[in-house]
Amino acid sequence: MNGYGQWRGICIALFGILILIACQSTVSPEPTPVPTGTLGTTPMPTTLPLPFSGVDSLCPVGPTPCAPTAPTPGAVSTSGSSSRTSVEQGSDEISTSVTTSATQPLTITILYDNNAYDERLKAAWGFAALVTYQHRTLLFDTGGDGPALLGNMRALGIDPAGVEDVVLSHIHKDHTGGLGALLAVGARPVVYLLPSFPADFKRQVGRTARVVEVTPGQALSEGIFTTGEMGDRIREQALVIRTDCGLVVMTGCAHPGIVQIIARAQELFDAPVYLVVGGFHLRNKSKSEIATIIEGFRQMGVRKVAPCHCTGDRAIAMFASEYGDDFISAGVGRIITVEPSGVER
Ligand SMILES: [Zn+2]
Ligand SMILES: [Zn+2]
């Protein structure tokens, strides 16, 4: 081999090594292992404290408006003990192009709600719903009380270890309070939360589970998306599921406004809204305000509604009257199945 050939060989080898180094440096970190270390001088438990400390606001039960928790804007701290904690950011790219075969029925099981439905289950203030779709099992919110959540799951024969993803709509305890108990019994889901959640909360969850901060329109699994963080005061995300019937929008407490959330879902996914389920947060609204909101639902072409949690009795009754057969009575233990042909009651 002549001089030129030798130099060419050396250059190719060096280029290969550089490519190898570049690839290794872009590999995502593995999910954080369960810690056994200490935080300062305080021994750290291997499971989360129950309930999480510092997150004690509830969605309003009565006329008192929600007390906002102090969100921590910006990046997650990675200093000190949080070096074991992994918080990932979702891609900024809107992922609405994910294809969905949509051959599987969507099943929504309300596991936690203050409205009674299945008498075997405990009704308590808060919201959680299990979503199974396209071979994936996701828990949207976790209710306010771990034992009540786990008890309701047990009553329905649902194994907590089967929960693959948890989506937290917002920081209020009646939606996040059951997460610690779920992780304590061995569930290891990916936890999707808002970038504005307090850093302490993210750190605590990140010690046991993989934590992902959501972005608008992000795909969480096949056919299941998030609106991303919405609202100015109490920030919240809603779930958007693409089905053959149209979009299914699931809200925790709808603090940013239920009409605004539906509009965001339509804007992101450019599809008709088939069903809206969850808390609509209309307890303190007047009859005329509720009527305007229902009119907004009709104008946006929402086909079916299943209001519960913080919607309020008056608003639920008005939706039932307006929607008739397309009103779905929702409460703890209610199972809603969306077949390609529509809701199976
Ligand atoms: Zn709330
Ligand atoms: Zn709530």
Q: Remind me, CATH topology?
A: Metallo-beta-lactamase, Chain A
User: Span between N and C termini?
Assistant: 78 Å
Query: What's the alpha carbon Rg, rounded to whole Å?
Result: 22 Å
Hey, roughly how much beta strand do the residues contain? 15-25%
Ions, cofactors and other ligands present here are: zinc ion
Number of domains: 1
CATH superfamily: Ribonuclease Z/Hydroxyacylglutathione hydrolase-like
Please state the structural category: alpha/beta
Tell me, what's the shape? globular
Strand order of the largest sheet: 3-9-8-7-6-5-4-16-17
What is the number of strand segments?
A: 17
Number of helices: 8
What is the highest CATH level, the class?
Answer: Alpha Beta
Low-pLDDT sequence parts = 11-56, 61-85, 93-100
What proportion of the residues is helical, as a percent range? 25-40%
Largest sheet: 9 strands, mixed
Average of pLDDT:
80
